[in-house]
């Protein structure tokens, strides 16, 4: 079936649109990392062969967070906000692991971070989400004593703070 000029143009436009959508979905993959205020996170950046010698971590596409130059960590151009809060894993560089450890998280750390590999057109993009107050996943118990002198009895309230139901123990009744 011969196609007319209009049909051919529509076919090519649709094909190009699909190619564009596929390319965008491949090149714009973002890894989302959750974190809590006061906590720490690892922002992943793993690159396959050949292992590069220059890697640049940036936030907002231009602001320096951390650099790895000739397989050595560098904070020379780092913006002050990240001073003493960012480190990497030098023993992992030879394996292509250029992940970043960000400590003492703040709400304003939430952003898009890019791990840019020299001579690569595809940066690793990580979206950091920071929320709430940092809470350890350890069971904590709060014991309160409430004395009611007028009634002359004491109640012991035991409350588990790690999402367990509250337990009320009243053993001192007359």
Question: Major sheet: size, sense and barrel closure?
Answer: 6 strands, mixed
Work out the helix count: 1
End-to-end distance: 98 Å
Helical proportion? 10-25%
Within the CATH hierarchy, at the fold level, what is the topology of the largest domain?
Immunoglobulin-like
Strand content: 35-45%
Q: So what's the CATH class of the largest domain?
A: Mainly Beta
CATH architecture of the largest domain: Sandwich
Order of helices and strands: HEEEEEEEEEEEE
CATH superfamily membership of the largest domain, which one? Immunoglobulins
Question: Based on DSSP secondary structure assignment, what is the total number of beta strands?
Answer: 12
Mean pLDDT: 74
| Low-pLDDT runs | 21-26, 137-174
Decide which structural class fits the backbone: mainly beta
**Strand ordering within the main sheet:** 1-9-8-3-4-5
Whole-number tally of structural domains: 2
Shape estimate: extended
Q: Radius of gyration from the CA trace?
A: 27 Å
Gist of the model:
The chain is mostly beta strands and 174 residues long. It has one helix and twelve strands.
Which descriptors apply to this entry?
174 residues, mainly beta, Immunoglobulin-like, 2 domains, six-stranded mixed sheet, three-stranded antiparallel sheet, 1 helix, 12 strands, extended, disordered C terminus, transmembrane helix, signal, receptor
């Amino acid at each position: 079936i011969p196609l007319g000029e209009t049909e051919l143009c529509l076919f090519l436009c649709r094909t190009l649109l699909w190619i564009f959508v596929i390319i965008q979905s491949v090149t714009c993959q973002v890894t989302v990392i959750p974190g809590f205020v006061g906590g720490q996170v690892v922002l992943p950046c793993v690159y396959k062969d050949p292992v590069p010698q220059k890697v640049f971590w940036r936030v907002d596409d231009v602001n320096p967070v951390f650099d790895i130059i000739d397989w050595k960590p560098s904070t020379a151009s780092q913006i002050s906000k990240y001073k003493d809060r960012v480190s990497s894993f030098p023993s992992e560089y030879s394996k292509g692991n250029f992940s970043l450890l960000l400590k003492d998280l703040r709400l304003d750390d939430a952003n898009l971070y890019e791990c840019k590999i020299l001579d690569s057109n595809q940066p690793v993009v990580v979206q950091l989400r920071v929320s709430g107050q940092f809470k350890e996943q350890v069971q904590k118990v709060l014991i309160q004593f409430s004395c009611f002198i007028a009634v002359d009895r004491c109640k012991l309230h035991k409350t588990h703070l790690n999402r367990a139901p509250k337990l009320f123990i009243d053993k001192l009744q007359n």
